[in-house]
Design a protein that fits this description.
Layout lengths: L4 H12 L5 H14 L7 H15 L3 E5 L5 H7 L7 E6 L2 H13 L6 E5 L2 H4 L3 H5 L4 E6 L6 H10 L3 E9 L2 H5 L1 H9 L3 E9 L6 E9 L2
Parallel strand pairs: 1-2, 1-4, 2-3, 4-5
Antiparallel strand pairs: 5-7, 6-7
Helix pairs in contact: 1-2, 1-5, 2-4, 3-4, 8-10
Bound molecules: the ligand O=C(NC/C=C/[C@H]1OC[C@H](O)[C@@H]1O)c1cc([N+](=O)[O-])cc(O)c1O and magnesium ion.
């Protein structure tokens, strides 16, 4: 087929969602992924858990690791207070190109900084490049074997403060066993598992919410 799945997701947004209406963008992607082609967005079920964590925390600084098509970027950014900022890292340039357009369709480009590149390269540069002190919330949804090394890197770079929240997708499916073991057994975190399902399927998955204790 001539297009890629992210490009077909973007087309679905442009055909079915209203410019400037984040909820219609989220709905268009969920409809497409539920009825046309599965894709690795956090999805509507886990997305509601994500929404409740963001709304309760009301964060000023958010880091998302793994943008993909921008689905969770739009969900998070649409709930942020006026001066809050969301930095989202994406390694794959084709995903990043689609995500920029999805975020723009939702009218959220003013709240979102999409950075292309590897999380391991960018995390040490967050302070100098983006004037970030610490993150109130980090949403981990990138390569599953990068969750643990990147969490340790964020600790080492002083990007987490007492009360910072890590919210991790896919801790059951595809699974992040080394990360789970770390945040559940480290005295520096208080962890909680939110049981759910793999996006658009009946398979079990869930989100792990971990508070950094400093
Ligand atoms: O690999 C997943 N996410 C990591 C994405 C990795 C790709 O996007 C970031 C990087 O550019 C890489 O090319 C994933 C996979 C499944 N899955 O069911 O296979 C479900 C999910 O929710 C996922 O986030
Ligand atoms: Mg995921």
């Amino acid at each position: 087929t001539w297009s890629t799945r992210p490009q077909r997701i973007l087309r679905a947004v442009q055909q079915s969602a209203t410019r400037g209406d984040p909820r219609s963008v989220v709905r268009a992607i969920d409809q497409f992924c539920r009825h046309k082609e599965w894709a690795m967005n956090v999805g509507d079920e886990k997305g509601c858990i994500l929404d409740s964590v963001v709304s309760e925390l009301n964060p000023s600084t958010v880091l998302e690791l793994g943008t993909y098509c921008g689905y969770s970027t739009v969900r998070i950014a649409s709930l942020l207070p006026p001066h809050a900022k969301l930095i989202t890292l994406e390694f794959n340039p084709d995903f990043a190109a689609v995500a920029r357009q999805v975020i723009a369709w939702a009218g959220l480009q003013g709240k979102v900084q999409l950075v292309e590149g590897a999380s391991g390269d960018w995390i040490p540069k967050m302070k100098e490049q983006f004037g970030v002190k610490t993150f109130d919330l980090v949403f981990l949804d990138h390569w599953k074997d990068r969750y643990l090394p990147d969490t340790k890197l964020m600790e080492e770079c002083g990007l987490l403060r007492k009360g910072s929240i890590l919210l991790a997708d896919n801790v059951i499916c595809p699974g992040t066993p080394d990360y789970l073991e770390y945040v559940r057994n480290s005295p520096r975190y208080k962890s909680q598992y939110f049981k759910s399902h793999l996006e658009y399927t009946k398979a079990e998955d869930g989100l792990e919410k971990s508070v950094f204790l400093g």
